[in-house]
Amino acid sequence: MKSRIVFLAVTLVLVCSFALPAAAGPGVSQVIGPIWITVPTYSTSLTPLQSITVKAPAKGNMVVTVTGTVNWEFTTGVEAWWCLQLSQTSGYIGGCVPDEGSDSAIRSYIAPDFPTTQSGFGMSTPYSIVRVWPVTAGTSYTFYLNGYESGFDTVDLFQPSITVLYVPGTLAE
Prior knowledge:
The chain is elongated and about 55 Å long. Strands 1, 2, 4, 7 and 9 form a five-stranded antiparallel β-sheet that branches. Strands 3-8-5-6 form a four-stranded antiparallel β-sheet, with no helix packed on it. The N and C termini lie far apart (about 55 Å). The chain has one helix at about 1-15; strands at about 25-30, 35-40, 50-55, 60-75, 80-85, 105-110, 125-135, 140-150, 155-170. The protein is mostly beta strands. It has one domain: Jelly Rolls (Sandwich), CATH 2.60.120. It contains one helix and nine strands.
């Protein structure tokens, strides 16, 4: 009887010490900065302002968030606007509205009669764009913050960041 107990104990220790395959859990990756990024003038040959590449550990979703502050200087008498887009395509992807290519964009418009800003100080507007993309195990994904402006003296992003959160599984349908 004693040998059976010892055998059972040894068997349990051996079985319980085998490593189990790890399930892919939540994970996060982030790109911060540089502290200032100049937003280029509108063109159809733009390059991304920021990007991040991540590899999906399993099937699930990537929650991508871009945040920061848009700082701008403006002179009265000129119509001005800026646009920021979150995309899996680098550079110019069309207009800043859904029917022109971007389903994850924010923009701001400044009327010509808006007062001139103080040089070196300007105005600032915080921004945030969040989007969820379904992902497949083992596939690498690159997400881009694209942007452009028109009519401003200067437009810069202050403390921009891209954060990607991997969430395992899929959303219920």
